[in-house]
Amino acid sequence: MPSPGKGRFMQLRYQMNDILPLLPVPQPSYGKTAYNIPCPICDAPGSRGRHLNINLKENVFCCPKCGEFSGGVFDLYAYYEGVPRNDVLRLLRARLGGSDHADGGGQQKRRKAPPRPPEIPQASLADIERRHRVYSSLLECLPLADDHRENLRGRGLSDDAIRHFQYRTAPTANLQSLARNLIQTGCDLYGVPGFYRDTQGCWTLASYRRGIMIPCRDRWGRIQSFHIRLDEKLKRGGKFLTFSSTDKPDGAGAENWCHIVGSVQPEILLIEGYMKADIVHHFTGRTVLAIPGVTSTQPLTAALKELSGLGVRRVMTCFDMDYMKNWHVENAYRKLLQLLSGLDITFGTYLWDPAYNGLDAYIWGFCMKRGERNANSLEAP
Percent of the chain scored above 90 by pLDDT? Predict the structure, then answer.
């Protein structure tokens, strides 16, 4: 079986929508411009993992979890059909038409490609200033439920810290009214991830599951996006969702932006998860840079280069301790170290008692053992 291809291959004759019906893979829903299927490299057979993203608009595929499976139309066909990539064009001509291939009756056979679904109009991404204004206004309209407040207190956050970080409960009702109120205050929702127009053309929110909304901020404190820590884990996926409206009319997709909390210092901590970053900063006062997950390193290079220019000289990684026993995470962690080694900074790794998976839980557990409810005086781990 051929190796998965790397990079993007532009092929105008045949597109993803042409070849997908020919392959033994799940098919996209009508109108989708991108969707996920199980990755044959890192999603175990029979598991619920769906990490391979197929982009029907760009005609590429990529698994951000393992980073080992990506390419274009011909690469995907070659892999699933078990044929050399150089033979793909000839085979597709034979199956879909456009060649002198004849059928058994001696007549030229041309198979019509399946019709492509209409493309859902997508908005261009709004700039950070407009996103920050809309998201800040949204937070002013939302409460924090009592059970979510208790959850955050159980992680060691004081009420003042909870107010400072502006956590809210993700809305699941009256979504059109929320959007209408924002518009009435002068907010422009076009291009802001998480907002889109419904079938009646009214603005609404792509918020369907209850959880804690966590702002992702840049170094000026502007809100770039939200993550939602769900009350109930998804059947296919994890505990967190990005507030995004990809594949919705006039919707926009959020990127895996880096979240930073605290003023820029010569040494910063690098952690997985926006809430973890907030909690560790609350405990220690250290500057913490967060990515959504250990495999989400695409925006990290630009962020670290910017921070290096602002005086950051050392990065200490503080990822969950399961990277030592989860080979998927361990592989991504090695790639992260390779990324760091290519920058003009030094780096190291903090280790702690693996009974506490996250650094936030470890520090809070340490404080509880010492009988300290206020952990702000703690030094670095």
Answer: 43
> CA-to-CA distance for 264 and 178, rounded, in angstroms?
35
**pLDDT of residue 102 exceeding 70:** no
- CATH number, domain 1-119, options 3.30.1360, 3.40.228, 3.90.580, 3.40.1170: 3.90.580
Provide the whole-model pTM. 0.70
pLDDT tens-digit series, residues 120-136 = 777 889 999 999 999 99
If you write DSSP's letter for every residue of 232-263 in order, what string do you get?
S--SSS-SEEE---TTSTTB-PPP---EEES-
> Distance of CA 168 to CAs 163, 176, 291, 296, Å?
9, 18, 20, 24
Please answer whether residues 285 and 262 qualify as being in contact, where contact means their C-beta atoms are separated by less than 8 angstroms: yes
The verdict on domain 256-381 having CATH code 3.40.1360.10 is: yes
CA angle in degrees (0–180, nearest 5) for 284-291-261: 35
Angle between helices 88-96 and 73-81 (to 10 degrees): 90
Tell me the fold of 121-254.
DNA primase DNAg catalytic core, N-terminal domain (3.90.980)
Asked if residue 100 has pLDDT above 50, the reply is no
The amino acid occupying position 321 is M
pLDDT of residue 223: 98
How far apart, in whole angstroms, are the C-alpha atoms of residue 34 and residue 42? 19
Q: How many helices (H) and strands (E) does the chain have?
A: 11, 15
Characterize 6-41 residue by residue with b for buried, 16 or more Cβ atoms within 10 angstroms of its Cβ, and e for exposed: eeeeebeebbbbbbbebeebeebeeebbbbbbbbbb
Q: What is the DSSP string of 171-239?
A: P-S-HHHHHHHHHHTT---TT-TTEEE-TTS-EEE---S-EEEEEEE-TT--EEEEEEEESS--SSS-S
* pLDDT tens digits along 307-318: 999 999 999 998
CA atoms within 13 A of residue 183's CA, in its CB half-sphere: 15
Whether 314 and 348 have beta carbons less than 8 Å apart is answered as yes
Per-residue confidence band for 340, with pLDDT thresholds at 50, 70 and 90: confident
